[in-house]
């Protein structure tokens, strides 16, 4: 049986998605929806890939790009803001431009062989 366990782990680790590295209490629907995107991406990739279409997910980390994350950022206070930035490998928050560059690449001709991927864009936090 140990051999079967190793085989199972090999199958699980390569498909481990990066978009939900941290779980928090009270965001059940949000977490379920994010996980659903992984399955939806796989199904869309299989269904539409044969006709040359690709499907990928961009999973951004903390980006102060609209009022909701801005309110969240302000509610943290300076100590928690500092902790959040220091928990990101590149030691900065993402920007809307960071996300836009990835999206433009993925929808462009040079990404025609990239499909069924979850691109975790969180500065290495996950």
UniProtKB/TrEMBL annotation:
Gene3D superfamilies recorded: NAD(P)-binding Rossmann-like Domain
One Pfam family cited in the UniProt record for this chain: adh_short_C2
InterPro entries found in the cross-reference section: NAD(P)-bd_dom_sf (IPR036291), SDR (IPR050259), SDR_fam (IPR002347)
Protein family (similarity comment): Belongs to the short-chain dehydrogenases/reductases (SDR) family.
Protein name: SDR family NAD(P)-dependent oxidoreductase
Species of origin: Microcystis aeruginosa DA14
Taxon lineage: Bacteria, Bacillati, Cyanobacteriota, Cyanophyceae, Oscillatoriophycideae
